[in-house]
Specification:
eight-stranded mixed β-sheet; four-stranded antiparallel β-sheet; alpha+beta
Length: 325
């Protein structure tokens, strides 16, 4: 893990940039904020810009920036992303994340996730405690590639911590830390695996099927688990939303899951910490916790980032940063 701790002076300079972007519109316009963040990103502290540029060039698998400004008057944690969207809570923090994100690539969102928002809220929601989404709490979120089913999934998944009083851990396994047996590696490199949309996506063409089963074969996409460079491969994995197409492939999924789980580390984010996870070189998850719904639960902001936005436009009819899934 590569980490940078911002100084008080650096944090103050970021605060000034955030102030300017938030004050630019009388009403909050997330798309305009994203564009202004891209324009303002070159004014970020030089040490931070250099750190993020080096992380991109070196393909760092897990990168943490600590000390980003968090509003001291932060409102209570919303009980679900939809309430967060309606309340407009955490706009300053969204801008801070966008500023850092645009230094790594191009932020984007999905039409089928959180009503097409660019920056997502990650907070527990009543009734969703055992779901397979970021609104869960009591259930462990298994290690996974974000949006594993889609060929244009993010290069980086970023999470900015606003509140985490129970030190709930984000779990991470780096593919570079694993030594797959040759036979398993060979199987995982073959296109014998089917990947499905996770439960956070609604109304996608991938999720259209006649049975209503999220893992109906008609809505999956085929591909390998390991791909790319022979000695430093990229990874695509989500035990809850994938399957092997034959017995050997299914056994390979089980074996890979066991290896990933045994190698998992954890990052307990504190307010002002932002982690940037390479979605091709690491899988991530989350430890379970007991949500209280008292305004003090864990609350993160999440952003998807592409290193090449043009590959997302290839499947769209326009150049919107909100991509149809």
């Amino acid at each position: 893990m590569h980490k940078l701790v911002l100084t008080a002076e650096e944090r103050a300079s970021i605060d000034v940039l955030v102030d300017g972007i938030v004050a630019a519109d009388e009403t909050w316009d997330p798309m305009a904020a994203m564009d202004r963040a891209a324009e303002a990103a070159p004014a970020l502290p030089r040490r931070l810009r250099a750190f993020l540029a080096q992380a991109r060039a070196a393909e760092s698998d897990v990168t943490v920036v600590s000390g980003l400004p968090i509003d001291p008057g932060l409102p209570p944690t919303p009980s679900g992303w939809d309430l967060a969207a309606k309340s407009g809570a955490g706009h300053r923090e969204e801008v801070a994340l966008l500023l850092c994100g645009t230094a790594l690539g191009d932020p984007f969102g999905w039409e089928s996730q959180q009503d097409g928002r660019i920056v997502h809220d990650v907070c527990p929601a009543p009734g969703m405690e055992a779901s397979l989404t970021s609104a869960s709490s009591a259930k462990t979120l298994s290690l996974h590639t974000e949006d594993v089913f889609h060929p244009c999934r993010a290069d980086y998944v970023s999470l900015l911590c606003l509140r985490n009083p129970d030190a709930v851990g984000t779990t991470v396994t780096r593919v570079g830390s694993l030594d797959f047996p040759d036979s398993l590696r060979d199987t995982l490199r073959e296109s014998r695996f089917r990947f499905y949309p996770d439960d956070s996506h609604t109304g996608t063409s991938h999720s259209a099927n006649t049975t209503g089963d999220a893992c109906d074969p008609s809505n999956g996409t085929m591909g390998p688990v390991l791909f790319g460079p022979e000695h430093s491969p990229y990874l695509r994995f989500d035990i809850d939303f994938m399957s092997g197409e034959d017995e050997e492939a299914a056994e390979a999924v089980t074996a890979a899951q066991e290896m990933l789980s045994k190698a998992a580390g954890r990052v307990a984010l504190e307010p002002g910490d932002a982690v940037f996870i390479d979605n091709y070189q690491a899988v991530h998850g989350r430890e379970p916790f007991a949500a209280r719904y008292d305004g003090n639960d864990r609350w993160l902001k999440r952003l998807n980032i592409s290193r090449d936005i043009r590959r997302l436009y290839a499947g769209s009819t326009n150049r919107s940063r909100i991509i149809p899934a």
